[in-house]
Amino acid sequence: MSEETLTNLSREERTFAPPADLAASANVTAEAYDAAAGDSEVFWAEAAERLSWDQTWERVLDWDNPPFAKWFVGGRLNAAYNCVDRHVEAGNGDRVAFHWVGEPADDKRTITYSDLQAEVSRAANALVDLGVKAGDRVAIYMPMIPETVVAMLACARLGAPHTVVFGGFSSDALASRLVDCGAKVVITSDGGYRRGSASALKPAVDEARAKASGEGFDVEHVLVVRRTGQEVSWDDAVDVWWHDVVDNASAEHDCEFFDSEHPLYVMYTSGTTGKPKGILHTTGGYLTGTSYTHNAVFDLKPETDVYWCTADVGWVTGHSYMVYGPLANGATQVMYEGTPDAPHRGRWWEIIADYGVTIFYTAPTAIRTFMKQGREIPDGFDLSSLRLLGSVGESINPEAYMWYREVVGGERCPIVDTWWQTETGQIMISPLPGVTAGKPGSAMTPMPGIEVDVVNDDGESVPNGSGGYLVIKEPWPAMLRTLWGDDDRFKETYWARFRKLGYYFAGDGAKRDDDGDIWLLGRVDDVMNVSGHRLSTTEIESALVSHPKVAEAAVVGAADETTGQAVCAFVILRDSAGDGGADIVEELRKHVQKEIGAIAKPRQILVVPELPKTRSGKIMRRLLKDVAEHREVGDVTTLADGAVMDLISKGVSSGK
Ligand code: ATP
Ligand code: MG
């Protein structure tokens, strides 16, 4: 991306200063923010004091062999002890850890920190009986039920790295992950509830186990939670019921302490840009990074806040900001099993009202879906408990930001737009709610202790007002340590682009505005080159979403004989717009021209009912590009709904 990057986003001039009362009592105040600007090792060493260490570290950072970092070298701790036991020991055992809400109405559970301690200890004892030892990998393929979190923490307690695989993934996706990380045990359930009915999980595990066996890899045990009560096939040599072995195990378990660099988990990326990568996170640095950022970005007051992160635990946001960060901080959370539209389209708002949720963290894709349905739905619920809103996963278009702010946040809640990746483990760029005056659409500034820059092809910082590549210049505590079993791919993917400078290359394009604030522009691979002009997907999509009839948009560059590449757009209309009218395509083309310029005017606009998204809700532009260039559609294994691509391809071939 170059300095020619077009600039409609920076025409957005609204800013929203922190509410005075929040700023006055914020976890990170303006003074603390300024004070953090010094030595980052000193800063992170102080942040690590948030945790309880069995043995303190001798060295904060070992970067002698880049890009392989070691943080808090020589320190020893247990992640589960930090997330659970120490809160009980501090007298907070009666505090609610989770208000769990099942999808079937009235299916609820309240789990205190004491309850969690007993459950995690039982599960840890049961896993030991199944032969799990420190260093063994355990796969978790579960719905959003409390046992999922218990399973993760039990693994962490034993030093057995977990790999959580989305419950929505196929047996193929599960099998390849089982083999890739060599999982000894799989923890699953008979099924889970989604959209009003019970869907099965166990059959996919049986299939995946058979496929893995075919490749010479045998899973030793499958531990099965009974959630729905549906029929399951059973192999006595392998399968065990959770209620048999966990419920009968002792609720006492003395935990062992592990090296700060002991592996905590492997998480596969969402696969938006290609084959998923097995990201390895370790213990001390990861827990420091997630605990600090969760406290700073969400301004959590553990005694009074009710925090809800809507992410599925099967992606990294569920790990860092539903399990490890919030639990390390002693938060009270909501955890919801089902979809936002079951049994009615106001379910999320109803949950916020019922539990008095104060901090809410979700993804732009969800916000745009609610925009599509209309504000009447959230307007029917009392959302006055909310005090802070967060966004993650993609750029939030200014239009969606304003809707979120006005309709959900009642114009009083600051919005934190958090940029980070599976690889970064922790939030890297975000406004701080008590410090930063937020701008709709901008992730704003790097977190304290983090060195982010926007650079040109030669790795030089670009001046304000220009675009380039997003890089991270210094190691950070929750950074990935490698790709599981593949150091070479780790070096190649993230460190080769700016090898001489030693920068981490994030793969995203970004721009600094005239104030130096950061705007994410989409994947570098998705940047379009139209007649020599570089155009960002995010900017054109935001222009389309700013049209009153449009709810969502995805833009790709398709090969074009005259212009090199041409802009192709796929749009979803708001329900209130009906079919958009006969001239909708021309109307939208003109709108983009007015908002950005003639060069960005899409060659083609397709009105579609749905967009292809990953299970974590990100638009898969590479598949749309295949459609726009009339190619066979590529790897769809991480797609949430396979049928979507057929719908879109049909629309294209019929010329609609
Ligand atoms: P893969 O690496 O397999 O293609 P992925 O990159 O989609 O998958 P994740 O690690 O879940 O997998 O997503 C990280 C990416 O999400 C970032 O690189 C960025 O493109 C995007 N992203 C996350 N948060 C934001 C945000 N607040 N603003 C803009 N983009 C964001
Ligand atoms: Mg990625």
Automatic annotation (TrEMBL):
Reaction(s) catalysed (UniProt annotation): acetate + ATP + CoA = acetyl-CoA + AMP + diphosphate
Gene3D superfamilies, per database record: 3.30.300.30, N-terminal domain of ligase-like
Keyword Cytoplasm: no
Domain of life (superkingdom): Bacteria
Domain AMP-binding enzyme C-terminal: 539-618
GO function term, MF aspect, one: AMP binding
Binding site residues for ATP: 417-422, 508, 523, 534
CC terms in the record's Gene Ontology section: cytosol
List of residues binding CoA: 194-197, 317, 531
EC nos: 6.2.1.1
PTM note: Acetylated. Deacetylation by the SIR2-homolog deacetylase activates the enzyme.
GO biological process: acetyl-CoA biosynthetic process from acetate
Residues holding Mg(2+): 545, 547, 550
Keyword Ligase assigned: yes
Root EC class: ligase
Requisite cofactors: Mg(2+)
Residues in Acetyl-coenzyme A synthetase N-terminal domain copies: 30-83
NCBIfam families listed in its UniProt record: Ac_CoA_lig_AcsA, PRK00174.1
Its biological purpose: Catalyzes the conversion of acetate into acetyl-CoA (AcCoA), an essential intermediate at the junction of anabolic and catabolic pathways. AcsA undergoes a two-step reaction. In the first half reaction, AcsA combines acetate with ATP to form acetyl-adenylate (AcAMP) intermediate. In the second half reaction, it can then transfer the acetyl group from AcAMP to the sulfhydryl group of CoA, forming the product AcCoA.
Family to which the UniProt record says this protein belongs: Belongs to the ATP-dependent AMP-binding enzyme family.
Protein's name in the database: Acetyl-coenzyme A synthetase
Species of origin: Nocardioides psychrotolerans
Lineage, broadest ranks: Bacteria, Bacillati, Actinomycetota, Actinomycetes, Propionibacteriales
